[in-house]
Amino acid sequence: MTTPQLTKNQSLVFDVLEKAEGPLSAYTILDKLRDHGFRAPLQVYRALEKLLEYGVVHRLESINSFVACAHPGDDCHSHGIVAFAICESCGQVMEFHDHEVDHRLMAWVRAQKFKPEKTTIEIRGLCEACAA
Amino acid sequence: MTTPQLTKNQSLVFDVLEKAEGPLSAYTILDKLRDHGFRAPLQVYRALEKLLEYGVVHRLESINSFVACAHPGDDCHSHGIVAFAICESCGQVMEFHDHEVDHRLMAWVRAQKFKPEKTTIEIRGLCEACAA
DNA sequence: ATTGCACACGTTATAGCATAACGCAATTGA
DNA sequence: TCAATTGCGTTATGCTATAACGTGTGCAAT
């Protein structure tokens, strides 16, 4: 799937996420876009919904926040399962992929005849700098 | 770590979760315990906090819900990373462990000098029965 | 050209999830 | 006895997410 041209709201939300140091909540995004005419949460959530669908933004379930995908110009849906390491001190997020992990999880899923739609892997802890 | 004697509120919350077919939200638990004197969310959240700490209950981050651990009498913290498959149709949850997945994730973490505190693996989709 | 549809958008209101801050009571251990 | 800890109850509040309504625009089929 290729990413279609973004609408105005989608572009604004995406730009905010791309320029951010770490993940942002929908309401934080809203606050950053008030100067651009945003007034209500739905304006953010609707844009996020599309950006998630296009695979250019990820949702971090464990902290109710969103980040721009670490692979600019690419569709993350094609990389298999995406895993995240989230520093609880500085908020930095590292995104990675491990095919062996994918393989093991998919093997389990297959054995159970479970039909996966969306898989979340999130490691919360301290990054190297913050753990020192 | 062994599980200490549960307090009254902790027991009530745990019993509700154990008897439930699937995961419950904190507010659902609250409603089920109104007859037992529960009046406020904090009564539930405080009990859950302890039950999570004892490892007898898990939090499902992706659906803001809680389940009793599938290994009665045991402390799940000792099983390594716990993974969940959550059926989005019937709500059923399957809990499993895969040491190879643990190993791969811990290898990555180690290479990055990241210090993990809590790891979430959740697969949402359809169980065999619901996918048919 | 107009009708019908799909989609993005704006607004208001509401639902659902979680915690802050206060105070009280019981327990424990120095 | 005193202080520290823990559990509990209550009120209030904050954060996260969606429902439901209506508007406008572009575009394709008739």
What descriptors fit this protein?
homodimer; 132 residues; alpha+beta; Arc Repressor Mutant, subunit A; three-stranded mixed β-sheet; two-stranded antiparallel sheet; 39% helix; DNA-binding
How does this model look, in words?
The structure is a homodimer of 132-residue chains. The first copy, chain A, has 132 residues and is an alpha+beta fold. Chain A has a single domain (8-131), classed as Arc Repressor Mutant, subunit A, CATH 1.10.10.10. Helix content of chain A is 39%, strand content 22%. Chain A contains five helices and five strands; from the N terminus they run αααββββαβα. Chain A has helices at 8-19, 26-32, 41-54, 99-112, 128-131; strands at residues 57-60, 65-68, 83-87, 93-96, 115-126. Chain A has a three-stranded mixed beta sheet. In chain A, strands 1-2 form a two-stranded antiparallel sheet. In chain A, strand 3 and strand 4 (93-96) form a beta hairpin. In chain A, helix 1 (8-19) crosses helix 3 and helix 2 (26-32) packs across helix 3 (41-54). The longest helix of chain A is centred in the middle third of the chain and has 14 residues, at 41-54. Chain A is globular, with a radius of gyration of 16 Å. The mean pLDDT of chain A is 93. The A-B interface holds A 61-62, 83, 85, 87-88, 94, 96, 98, 100-101, 104-105, 108-109, 112-128, 131 and B 61-62, 83, 85, 87-88, 94, 96, 98, 100-101, 104-105, 108-109, 112-128, 131. Strand 5 (115-126) of chain A pairs antiparallel with strand 5 (115-126) of chain B, so a sheet runs across the interface. Chain A binds a DNA duplex (30 and 30 nucleotides) through residues 7-10, 25-27, 39-43, 45-46, 50, 64.
